[in-house]
Amino acid sequence: MNKKRAIAAGICICITVVICATVFGRKRPGDITLLNAAQETVVHAIVQINGTTFQFDNIPPAGVRKIKYPGADKNRYSVNIEFRYERKLPPQTGIFSDRGKEQNQLVIKRDEVVLESGG
């Protein structure tokens, strides 16, 4: 009888460990803001974060787009921006983390895209 209880207890512990590892080990989705601070309309923007692609059209000056992306320990991003008259920024790439409660922003400027973090 004691062997059966020990085996049942061992199975329960294993199941509990697997469930906890699955629930708490999973990375939660993150949020980032795409802000057009370029003083001109963005005709087309392609943002890729951790392999997921987001596309936006006609972002006005001071326009904001919210992005929810699949989280990771180190988030990799790439941004391609096209303005009117086929003017484009060179592709911008980088890495950021989700540590703390900072709000990350990708800020589109006239000649570049800058990653900014705020508290």
Task: Give structural notes.
The protein has 119 residues and is of the alpha+beta class. The protein has one helix spanning 2-25, and strands at residues 30-36, 42-49, 52-59, 64-69, 75-83, 92-96, 103-108, 113-118. The strands form 2 sheets. It has a 4-stranded mixed β-sheet, with no helix packed on it. A 4-stranded antiparallel β-sheet has the order 3-2-5-6, with no helix packed on it. The chain is rod-shaped, with a radius of gyration of 22 Å. The N and C termini lie far apart (58 Å).
Write a brief caption for the model.
With 119 residues, this protein is an alpha+beta fold. It has 1 helix and 8 strands; from the N terminus they run αββββββββ. The longest helix is centred in the N-terminal third of the chain and has 24 residues, at 2-25.
